[in-house]
Amino acid sequence: MGRDSSPVGLHRVVEPAGVLPQAALRLDPSPEIAADEVRIKVERLNLDAASFRQLFTKHDGDGDAVRAEVLEIINSRGKMHNPATGSGGMLVGTVAEVGPDSPLGLRPGDHITTLVSLTLTPLQITDGLRDWDGRSEQVPAAGHAILFGRSIAAVIPDDLPSPLAMAVMDVCGAPALTARVVGSYADRGHAPAVAVIGAAGKSGSLSVVAARRAGAKSVIGVVPVRREAEILDRAGIADDVVLADARDPVALCGAVTAALDGHQADVTVVCVDVPGCEHGAILSTADGGTVVFFSMATSFSAAALGAEGLAADVTMLVGNGFLPGHAGYALDLLRTEPAVRAMFEARLAAEGH
Fold first, then answer.
1. 117: Cβ contacts below 8 Å, ≥ 6 apart
2. Which of the 8 DSSP states describes residue 33?
3. Do residue 202 and residue 326 come from a single domain?
4. Do 15 and 118 share a domain, yes or no?
5. Residue 40 backbone phi and psi in degrees, to 5
6. For range 49-72, the mean pLDDT
7. pTM of the model
8. Residue 208 is part of which domain span?
9. DSSP SS3 for 191
10. Which among 12, 99, 128, 169 counts the fewest CB atoms within 10 Å?
11. Are 196 and 172 in contact (CB under 8 A)?
């Protein structure tokens, strides 16, 4: 524990000098920890949806090629930071060593999930990802990761399997922010109409039930294909389910307004893992409304310039993945919403977990 440290991880930046770990080209993942750091024995990575989709599409579904590229990224950058999407994911592991000055409250042996991005987490893989077929977001792995003084992690509850807890906590910022935004409308005496784009996915399904609990007047679930519409219909968590390609602004707006009797949504939550959905989300949102972009596939320049070009008086929020209490809130939704839990479990089963 002889190394000097910075609570935000500046001491782990190899290049370029002077940037924070997320912006770094390369981090130092060496296992020796500073006094305020924690070393985690890695068990599983969870690639974020946008990153995995980009890699899987790039390699035409060749799992071996996907695995090789993920391993190359980690080995060359000292972290999992997809250069094409700028995103990473998070991980599950066991606390191996805790520095005496660590403020995180973790103890050796704690089974935890990180709540900070892999794009800023020093990471070293020692097994070549040999147990991963490259065909799912969750990646069995051996190695270690480092948490800084200002990192965030949560102990995995005993009542939930690790893959399920990991899947929920990977997206726990989305329902928490959705609840905050919808609740702010309700607190002003206006129950908002909410559209969730990508409502059958992990962050989308949790955001649907979060919006309903926070006081939404109605919640519209938007999905791109019939299969997802059927899943959402069976779950019964949305007031209406509509089919629309979020990359087609006119079609998306038409589907949302038709479901809302000719009105646009007061709050639109974007939970998709493909680019090009910014303009449709803005067009679907009423003047004075709010768009929450909770997708690493979002182009924020496209959103800003698109809103300007549409003369859209909307507030646009970037979901940054953290709100106080977000992990506990998301886990509570999973425990108390059987339909959402069933959706998560079916997704994991399809991926072989």
1. 22, 48, 87, 88, 89, 90, 321
2. P
3. yes
4. yes
5. -110, 130
6. 96
7. 0.85
8. 173-350
9. coil
10. 128
11. no
